[in-house]
Amino acid sequence: MGMAKTYRFFVFISVALVSLLLTYAPSYAFQRKPKTEQKGVEILLEPNNKKGSFSARKPVKFRIGLRNNFSSDQEGTIVYKVVNGKGDEVLTSSLDVRVNARKTLVSSFDVNVDEEGTYSLTATVDLTEYNETLTRGFTYSGPPRKPKDRRETPRNPYIQNWIADNVKPGPPVPKQTLVKEAESANNDQEENTDKGNGSEDEGEIIVKLKPAEKDGIFMNGNSIKYSVNIQNKYKTKQEGTFTLLIETEDGKEVNSKQVKIKLGRKGQRSFNITLPAITDPGIYNLKAALNTTSYDDTSLHAFGYRVANYGTPYRRAPDFEDFWKNAKQELDQTDPQFKVTLDEGLSTYYHMVYRVDWVSLGNINCYGWLSIPKPKGKYPVLIGYGGYKIPLNPLYYDDYVIFTVNVRGIDPKVYKQINPENKEQITVGLEDKDAYVYKGIYMDCVRALEFIYSHADMGFDLGRIIAFGGSQGATLSLITAALMPGKINAVVANNPVFADWKSTFDIGLSKRERSFPIKNLVDYQKEHKGVKQENILETLNYFDLQNFMPGIRCPVLYAVGLLDPFCPPGAQIAAYNKLSPSILARSDLYVFPTLGHEVPESHQALVSIWFAEMVAKKINRK
């Protein structure tokens, strides 16, 4: 799988973006009141069934109704958080909303809860001229468990780390859009069985937007085309506009294209649309706005233009190389004290599982799980690095040794050593590059690789070693390969974070709602008056992924979601482009235009094939 100056982009899923729906309905069990008693906006919030009990078969869903009594349109957000019975916040998310003057909005939204228990949902509705907070309770019960299922199976870090949840404690997930459900005014049953008798104002409009290039990457600025399909589910004709607004990643408007729309009752329209020409390489956000007689909604999409030519400036400190050379020398002066302990409880009929403990920089203890197939022989080694503050469990492969690495801070006992004030981990030591927590974390990863090289007698084939991870794990894999050149055959990196901190700041600060990690850094500045962005960047530039990329000496399988809220996709791709030309020619970039901080399940099958290809040729490191 090679790549020269011309990039090859792959995508395993058909790109079909369905705009989630905002729409209007005439009633939602609102009780009519005299005008003198009416609020500016009347709000009803309730679980999708009257008992408020949900399960694996009936996922958690809430309905919300907004009646706008103002003579002006109201728009804003609904921010909701879910708290479990212990008082722990388990979910925060937000929804964009718009209600026309004297109109009523009826919608529903899913709540992603999958652990049994009692919960409360608090929703804050913040509109142009009105705000209100409501709280509702609900319960969730999982499927019945059989005795043999009671022992929890270790989670696969592919799934565990390659989704948005791998950043904890995380920011709101990418904004959802309210989904309209046509309902009768008095529907309070567990399931809506009303098949008819609805008002003609009830309905929905479904918009499907598909790029001409399946991976959303275009090479010709004059040929950025999308196919559009709009289906009218209303019982009345709809007339209005469909607008595509092109913006840079930091929210600057580039251009727009508008089409007038007329839809018959229950009708649809399909057409192709060519966007105004783009000249500069990069990633662009695409806002698709549909405004008709009874419907207003905007959904977010993204595309790339000539991304192989996209780059951001290096912001390397003059002593960058010396800093990391000295860090490794400091690590060498720390006795690793490797300890390997068989864990019979985690071992299986086919695998021996060991807990590996070691001492890293600053005499901090770390650990990992080593899974070795029982049949004798020398096996390729896969080293897995985890997401932000997420522990990794053992993995079991028949043809590989797997070493899953838990860096400092994963073990609660060690966490107090490195973070006695219980700050957000990414801010620990932020104002001093020598004290910054990620200096130790990067060295923890290096020491894990040193363990493999010092214990080859356990059946490790040192000529075939691959590092992998998602999110922070992707970044750690890449940086380990750069700090230990020639020691790793290949790296699999999905949705890496901490790439180009300056661009990440600029783009993050342009958002109405800030997400990890910029939100955490801005909060740090608020708590530490006088600490400026320049002070923070002075430290972070030593730990910026893009500054390590030229030092990687092995092929990389790299994946980016163009809607990633945690690290700007443009920054991720710009970091990839900083691989040396010879390494780029042997590497592969996969782009997923409809995804955020994740990759599709189908990508994991490709990863397995790539693992096999990368270990097919043994490297002699003697």
Overview of this protein structure:
This protein is α/β, with parallel strands linked by helices. It folds into three domains: 22-141 and 173-177, Immunoglobulin-like (Sandwich), CATH 2.60.40.3880; 204-309, Immunoglobulin-like (Sandwich); 320-616, Alpha/Beta hydrolase fold, catalytic domain (Rossmann fold). Helix content is 18%, strand content 33%. The protein contains twelve helices and 28 strands. A ten-stranded mixed sheet has the order 1-28-27-26-25-23-24-22-21-20, with helices on both faces. The protein is globular. Residues 1-29 and 144-198 have low confidence and may be disordered.
Q: Report, as a whole number of angstroms, the end-to-end distance.
A: 27 Å
CATH architectural designation of the largest domain:
3-Layer(aba) Sandwich
Radius of gyration in whole Å, from Cα? 26 Å
Secondary structure: number of strands: 28
Domain count: 3
| Weakly predicted, low-confidence segments | 1-29, 144-198
Helix content: 10-25%
Largest sheet: 10 strands, mixed
In CATH terms, the superfamily of the largest domain is Alpha/Beta hydrolase fold, catalytic domain
Strand arrangement across the biggest beta sheet = 1-28-27-26-25-23-24-22-21-20
Q: In what range is the share of β-strand residues?
A: 25-35%
Mean pLDDT: 83
Given the helix and strand composition, which structural class is it? alpha/beta
Within the CATH hierarchy, at the fold level, what is the topology of the largest domain?
A: Rossmann fold
Shape: globular
**Can you tell me the CATH class of the largest domain?**
Alpha Beta
Secondary structure tally, helices: 12
